[in-house]
Amino acid sequence: MEQNRANDENAPYAPPRDPRIRPITLKVGAAKGQSHNEPSALISPATTDQATVPSKDQPVSEGPGTPSSETFARSFSGLAENIIALSQSAAEQANLKKRLEATEGSFTKTKKHFNFPSTISYLQQLRRDDNDDLGRVEEKLRENKLRRDELERSVGSLVSSSTSHRHDSEIEIKLRDAKTEAASAKKSALEAQLIASNAHKEIETLKGRKETDKALEERLQYLQSRVDILDTATKAHSTFLSRHTKDIQECRNQFASTSEALARKTDVETREERSSSLHERIRDMEQNLTSIKSRLRSISSGQDDQRYIKEEIHRLKTAGEAYKAALENIPKLEEQLSALQNSSDTSSTIQKLDGVMDLTNHTRSQLDDISKRLSSLENASWANDSATSRKENDSVKEEIKTLSEAFKELQSQVQQVGQAQGQQPAQTSTNDRDQIDLRITVEQLSQQLSALQNVLKAKDDLQFQEMESLGKRLAEHTNVLEKLKADQRVHETVGELSASLQTLARDIEKRQTIADVGLRSLEERYNNLSTETLAKNIITVIQEFYPLSLPALMEQLGLLKTQMDQLKASNTAMQQAQLERMGQRLTALEDHYEKNQGTLKMNNKQMTEKIAALNYQQSALWAHMQNEVQPNIREMTPLRDQLQSLTSRLYEHTEKVQHDITNREMERQSFLRDMQQERDRLNDEIKSVDNSVKDLAEKIKGIDNKIRETNGVTVTSLLGRIHESEKATTEEIKALTRKFEETAQLAKRDISDAVGRLEALEKVKEELASLPLDRLAEIGLGQPKMDTQPRDEHRKRRKPTASSDEEQSSSIPTSVSEVHSSSKSSPSLETDPSSARKKKKRKKRQIEEGTVNSGNGR
């Protein structure tokens, strides 16, 4: 730095410095190598002897657990000195920028004038020097800033580690809260990252499950097709049942008509028989009720399987239909009882029969309620609501209990009626044959009904068994087809391998043939060579290309032949073994394929036969159902209405659930947004608290620095600085005056040289003008050349280059010297060029001396 200062003093031009700014020097290398406990070396001309900088090897006294006060003071003083150095270097940078702007302005002004190249070069050099100084100062600023940052960190760590009384308890509490909040924010961020990683894993698993989802979709489609088939079967079964109920109603009507015809001719025996038949039917109904109770108990005992519930509901439906049929027989019994009422005169029997009719009506209403509840129970089972189904089962149990009690009362009353009528005198039986016929027809009808029920049960069992067997066979066929597909893939791979082996064999054969042909051609050529000269030439060429001898080459050729033969044999053996293996595998695969094909054909034949048998059975059943069963639309319409109402309720329920889900999702998103806003607000508050803490620390540091500066500054140091600044300004003024004097002398010399050159030019012009034209023509100078030459010189002189004065001024004399050298006759022209050369040499010497002096000054 001091050397640069000396160069600046010896420089030809430097702007005046402000006497208030004291020059400073910084040891940058020492500042870089210092630790946090060492202050930066700030050396000024007045304080070089006073400053004591600790070295790297000097130990620093520290406490056992916390930094000592000495290290704290040293680091703090280093920070203050670094801040002072920064401010001084910033002021120096501003001055250098001003000086550079001034030099730039003067350079742009002098650049317009082409007659002062030396000043232009000087200003260029000055601008370069100013740029170098600016770069040096900027580097110093950068290093000081880095050092300040390091010192601030060290001071901050020392202040935070030391338990000083300056820190306020509220700030510490805020910092702790901020740390806890930052930790919680980090935890929440980590949780969010874990959630995101889990979501990515779930997405990957879902992507991996696409194949399984495809298989499940195929399985669902297959099950849906089976469900459709079952729906069609149930529809056909319902139509068959409705037609069957119509047939039963017709039979009942016929039975009623026959019973009405016979009731007119009945007597006491027929009445007793009818009462006994009524007793039997009531017993059957009681047995059915007990079976229903047992089934309901089994349902309520914990069988939650949907299939079992469906089967039980189906059985309850069949039992309910049977009860309906039994209840439909009750009007016939009522008519028979009315006939008995007309025939008998006893009032007690009439009252008892009225009681029986009331009980039958009550039981009918209760059975209707049971059928309705069974339908609701079926719908509930379809909806998979176990709680409601259990409630319905309990209510059905209660109703069945009441029904059983009612049936018992009815049975007792009928027995009383039979006893009362048995006491009456027996009348003559006139229509015994009609009664026997009626019994036979009733028995036949009951047998037909039981047979029909058995047929229906067998049909349902056969349908389900056949469907299950068909499903199993289809699964077996799909497995067999998959195996066949795998076998086809194996065949394809085998074919590809065989093709590749064939191509490899062809390539090997081609290469072998090429090698054999080449060897044969070489042998033939070698054998056909008979002349000694050719053999010698070939031997020499071979020896040049291959430094080995001929027998060695022959041995190598023999070895190569043997190796080729071995390779050929091994290749042929490998090919034959591979072909044999492939042939064996192909034969095994063909046998396996033929076996699988035979089994498939057999299975296909069996399937076709069974399908044909099933089609025949189905066609027979369909014909039977079409012939004997007719659809009952009136009974199906209420079921359809119930289904529509249930579907509408289900849709409404699903819409409500979806609406609730969307509302919950929106609430969750709003809650998350509020949480994010609160988190951002907390982060902003933490940042503001941190910034306020930093500002407080910086203010405290500035106050301490100012206090130390005021304590460190003394009167003697101020006087010394003032004297130093005065000395520096006087030296700079002297240097400036020297530079200006030198430039004035150089300008005077340049002007005198230019005047001498102009005088010499005028003399040359006068001499040339005094010469005749013939002499000028002999010399080689004509009028046009004399006109164009000054014009070219003028052009050269007007070029905006930063050349020296001698290049512009010596252009005319050189051209004139050429003219004098071309002319040999005039002695006056010979003397002038020698003087011009001497002046030129003198000018060069002066310029070299001036550049050397300027370099030393810098």
Structure notes:
Helix content is 86%, strand content 0%. Among the domains are: 1-54 and 69-162, no CATH class; 176-208; 224-424 and 432-466, no CATH class; 500-539; 714-786 and 810-858. It is built from 21 helices and 2 strands. Mean pLDDT is 66; it is low at 1-67, 163-167, 299-305, 343-347, 380-389, 424-430, 782-831 and 854-858. Strands 1-2 form a two-stranded antiparallel ribbon. Helix 5 packs antiparallel against helix 15. With 858 residues, it is mainly alpha-helical. Keywords: Coiled coil.
Helix-strand topology string: HEHEHHHHHHHHHHHHHHHHHHH
Low-confidence stretches: 1-67, 163-167, 299-305, 343-347, 380-389, 424-430, 782-831, 854-858
Silhouette: elongated
Give the mean pLDDT. 66
Biased composition (Low complexity): 414-430, 809-834
Biased composition (Basic residues): 836-845
Region (Disordered): 1-72, 414-434, 779-858
Coiled coil: 316-343, 672-699
Give keywords:
single chain, mainly alpha, two-stranded antiparallel sheet, disordered N terminus
Chain-wise SSE layout:
Elements: H1 2-10, E1 25-26, H2 28-33, E2 42-43, H3 69-112, H4 117-161, H5 169-208, H6 210-263, H7 268-300, H8 306-328, H9 330-343, H10 347-382, H11 386-423, H12 432-528, H13 532-545, H14 550-628, H15 633-712, H16 715-770, H17 773-779, H18 783-797, H19 805-809, H20 811-822, H21 827-857
Antiparallel strand pairs: 1-2
